[in-house]
Write a structure and sequence with these properties.
The chain is α/β, with parallel strands linked by helices. The chain has one domain. The chain is built from 4 helices and 7 strands. A 3-stranded parallel β-sheet has the order 1-6-7, with helices on both faces. It has a two-stranded antiparallel ribbon with strand order 2-5. Strand 3 and strand 4 form a beta hairpin. The longest helix is centred in the C-terminal third of the chain and has 18 residues. It is globular. The protein starts with 8 loop residues before the first helix and ends with a helix.
Length: 160
């Protein structure tokens, strides 16, 4: 599971909700800094964990917010940034790239406004979902998304 190591309280609630839903389906979410603590360089450890996985979940939580700035400075496409731009952790891009390279089934969630790289539509064959809203019960759409992902992971784990 690719997600930032530091989360806000509302993000922790969503992360916990997704973790519990995956565990109920018999999946074991693994995240550097939460379930696994590396004794080597973090990128090497991420590659090792992902290489021993059968599916990947990417949680695009906002980690940086740019309030003003310049996009593509010094180019013919330079534009001022005048409204809030939320950015995910760069580790989402690195870890998702490894998952794509290994052709793992992907499940991608993003907070509203998070975009770019793995969170752009059409970059992979994975649908980009908005973060679920934690509740007492899984809503029908979230349940179906997780069930389909779980089926793809199991097909990879138990090849026909």
């Amino acid at each position: 599971m690719s997600r930032p190591s530091t989360l806000s309280p509302p993000q922790v609630e969503i992360d916990t909700y997704i973790h519990k839903a995956l565990r109920r389906r018999g999946l074991e979410p693994r995240t550097i800094g939460t379930t696994d603590y590396p004794d080597r360089l973090p990128l090497w450890e991420a590659r090792n964990i992902i290489g021993h996985s059968y599916g990947g979940v990417v949680l695009g939580f906002e980690q940086t917010r740019i309030l003003t700035g310049v996009s593509k400075p010094g180019t013919t496409h330079e534009e001022p940034i005048s409204s809030s731009v939320p950015l995910p952790t760069p580790w989402n891009q690195l870890e998702a790239g490894i998952m794509v390279q290994l052709d793992l089934p992907l499940l991608i969630f993003r907070e509203s406004g998070v975009e770019g790289g793995i969170f752009d539509l059409g970059v992979t064959d994975a649908f980009i979902h908005l973060m679920p809203v934690p509740g007492r019960r899984e809503d029908r759409a979230f349940k179906q998304i997780l069930d389909r992902f779980t089926d793809r992971v199991r097909q990879r784990y138990y090849p026909a």
